[in-house]
Amino acid sequence: MRVGILGSGLMGGKLGTIWARAGHEVVFSYARSEKKLQRLARDAGGRARAGTPAEAAKDADALLLAVHWSRFDDVLKECGSLSGKVIVTCSLPMNDSDTGLVVAHKSSGAEKLAKKVPKARIVSAFNTVPSEVFFAVFENRGRGTPPSLAYCGDNAKAKDVAAQLIRDVGFDPVDAGPLRIARYTEPFALLIGQLAYEGDRGPALAYRFDWFEERNA
Ligand SMILES: NC(=O)c1ccc[n+]([C@@H]2O[C@H](COP(=O)([O-])OP(=O)(O)OC[C@H]3O[C@@H](n4cnc5c(N)ncnc54)[C@H](OP(=O)(O)O)[C@@H]3O)[C@@H](O)[C@H]2O)c1
Questions:
Q1: In a mutational test of the pocket of ligand 1, which residue from 5, 8, 10 has the highest number of ligand atoms less than 8 Å from its CB?
Q2: CA 146 / ligand 1 centre spacing (Å)
Q3: Binding site membership of 130 for ligand 1 (Cβ less than 6 Å)
Q4: Which of 12, 61, 65, 78 qualifies as a cystine partner to 5, CB 3.0-4.6 A?
Q5: In what order do the strands lie in the sheet with 62-65?
């Protein structure tokens, strides 16, 4: 796949690197320094390169939106037409001090994004795990039961693309339903953040859902 990274920080930098190493053609875009994008592309290897958001979006099979909530409008404006594009958003609608959600309960960051770019196909994924766990999960793929990763969206084909990208990192994709379920996954991401950053076992945390056969007493 050709994957455009919009926001090449902790999330975009790491996921883009993993997808490049998994064989995808990755374009890193949107950082404050061009040199950083070039270094990311060089270190990722494979067919990774640096570009502008418009170059990342052009001919992309999928785009990863990985910027702070306050940068959404700016990066989207730089992309040009996003009609028909699959946008996987790992972004959370956090306030400026990153202490709480500014959209919740009656809507979600993912749904707000869908309203901003109504012709794009939005999938919410990857925001329920900290960036610190990605390389460990990638290195562990194929060994033991993979950790889960919940994702949601309204378009079946876009969700297939996202599920493949989730598998490529080493997670087991768990389809949580339509995009409005981001109202639940986004606050869940804050629980994971609490455990990762305020707990005493380090930030490289993932989770796994297990289904059991129901039994009666
Ligand atoms: N980090 C996590 O573990 C985590 C987990 C779940 C969800 N999320 C969500 O994922 C999204 C991305 O988080 P992150 O931690 O990856 O953030 P980040 O490390 O700050 O990355 C954001 C990217 O946007 C770029 N950027 C910011 N302002 C810019 C500007 N004015 N012009 C050009 N580029 C600019 C940054 O550039 P520079 O590279 O130059 O700084 C960086 O590449 C957020 O919505 C966050 O809530 C993060």
A1: 10
A2: 26
A3: yes
A4: 12
A5: 49-50, 25-29, 2-6, 62-65, 86-89, 121-124, 148-153, 172-175
Handedness of CA 69, 64, 126, 20 (dihedral sign): negative
Q: Are 78 and 72 spatial neighbours (Cβ–Cβ below 8 Å)?
A: no
Distance separating alpha carbons of residues 149 and 174, to the nearest angstrom: 6
Q: For residue 88, report the phi and psi dihedrals to the nearest 5 degrees.
A: -95, 115
* Alpha carbon nearest to ligand 1 atom 5, residue: 130
For 85, phi and psi rounded to 5 degrees? Answer: -75, 145
Ligand 1: atom nearest CA of 98 is: 47
Q: State whether residue 163 is helix, strand or coil.
A: helix
**pTM of the full structure:** 0.98
